[in-house]
Amino acid sequence: MSFGGPAAQIALMHRTFVEEKKWIDEARYLHALNYCMLLPGPEAQQLATYVGWLLHGVKGGIVAGALFVLPGAIVVFALSWLYAAHGEAPLVESAFYGVRAAVLAFVIEALNRIARRALKRRSDFLIAIAAFVALTLFSLPFPLIILAAALVGVFHAKDVGLGASKTPRPLFAKTLATAVVWAGIWATPVIAAFAVLGQDHVVTRVGVFFSKLALVTFGGAYALLAWLREQAVETEGWLSAAQMIDGLGLAETTPGPLVLVNQFVGFMAGYQTEGGGFFVATLAALMASWCTFAPSFLWIFAGAPYAERLRADPRATGALSAITAAVLGVIASLAFWFAVHVLFRETATAILPWGADLTIPDMTSFDPVATLIAAAAGVALIRYHANAILVVAGALIAGIAISAF
Fold first, then answer.
1. Of 16, 153, 301, 388, which has the fewest Cβ atoms less than 10 A away?
2. What is the DSSP letter of 260?
């Protein structure tokens, strides 16, 4: 039932937990949501984990967090297998021609939605523009952009807050023990892959990369896609730009967190590497999923009490506000990259005077049909708030129909 990305999933959990089941009240639900918005990673899965922990302790948190992910992970794995086996078939190629155009519309819709929430002050506009320029024109690392935004937010924070926190100060020894246990659980598969397969094996590299990604994914799935795209497509060469966009299209139309696109990337990395295949792809997909979602249990069980206390600190509030503005610039950079690859059949790489690379379109290869599909999908999403599955289905059918003529 959890289609439509984190916003729809959070709304569905509110209806189920608060209104229908009455497991927790409104204030407790918002309290839990505030925890999760302060942490890196998939906020909807973290919210499910937190509520499970609230109701039944650590066991409840583990069950809730795992089952929130598992159904969608199974579906994405099956679709990844089918895509790898039949992705070059003419009918599948035609279908994904339309889906890629719809994915561009999803990214623009997310950009529009976050802009309404994030751009409250002139400084927010400046931070967003700076983040876009830093990522697009200077190819600065995503974590560095987030760190810089946080520092700007801390230094410009106003001396206002939510008052003294009513949350008891957490016991450091207990927190440390919890953190060590869950960090060990998170790291065990990566260490095992390193010991058995070696540091250069694709499964090990996937584990290390997605572990790094888990530390900086503030701002939700679309924010992490910018760094994921840069590293997986351009640096590692695990998959092509078109395959990356196809993977996001699959994740948009399956239940579960949108960041299950990470599993698709891991699968394709294992499948397409030299000496790879379905077995290596399966290991890489499992590793990508583990390193995406296992950290959430660490953040919730060990970090949430501290995150709640920080809500009363205006410096933390300022940092988070600045990060949100920077995330907007990051998503704008992602939208630019998607637009270049979706709306134009040919691209080139320009070397800028300061040494950075910039992907630019060949203007003679402009694709009016893809542009029309993307525009129609954008109107459906932004103007009429159409269901994501219906939008993707319509784009898929349009792609097949156009190829028939």
1. 16
2. G
Q: Flag whether pLDDT at 170 surpasses 70.
A: no
Token duo for residue 9 = 């999933």
pLDDT in tens, 74-85: 999 999 999 998
- Which of 54-58, 230-234, 285-289, 316-320 is the least confident region? 316-320
Kindly report the pTM of this predicted structure: 0.79
The closest alpha carbon to 53, from 78, 71, 36, belongs to 36
Q: For residues 300 and 60, is the Cβ–Cβ distance under 8 A?
A: no
Instruction: Report which residue type is found at 135.
Output: L
DSSP codes joined into one string, 274-341: TT--HHHHHHHHHHHHHHHHHHHHHIIIIIHHHHHHHTT-HHHHHHHHHHHHHHHHHHHHHHHHHHHH
Q: Are 299 and 46 in contact (CB under 8 A)?
A: yes
**Per-residue model confidence as pLDDT tens digits over 128-156:** 999 999 989 998 887 788 889 989 988 88
- Joined tokens for residue 173: 């020894």
- Can you tell me the distance from the alpha carbon of 252 to that of 238, in angstroms, rounded to the nearest whole number? 21
**Total domain count, the chain:** 1
Q: Are 49 and 61 in contact (CB under 8 A)?
A: yes
Query: What confidence tens digit (pLDDT) does each residue in 223-243 have?
Result: 778 788 888 998 899 999 889
- Cα–Cα distances (Å) from 344 to 26, 29, 85, 99, 336, in that order, read 48, 45, 26, 15, 12
Q: Which domain holds residue 215?
A: 5-89+102-340
Residue 194 located in a structural domain? yes
> Contact at 8 Å (CB) between 43 and 37?
yes
User: Is 96 a member of any domain?
Assistant: no
Any domain includes 73: yes
- On whether residue 363 sits in a domain, the answer given is no
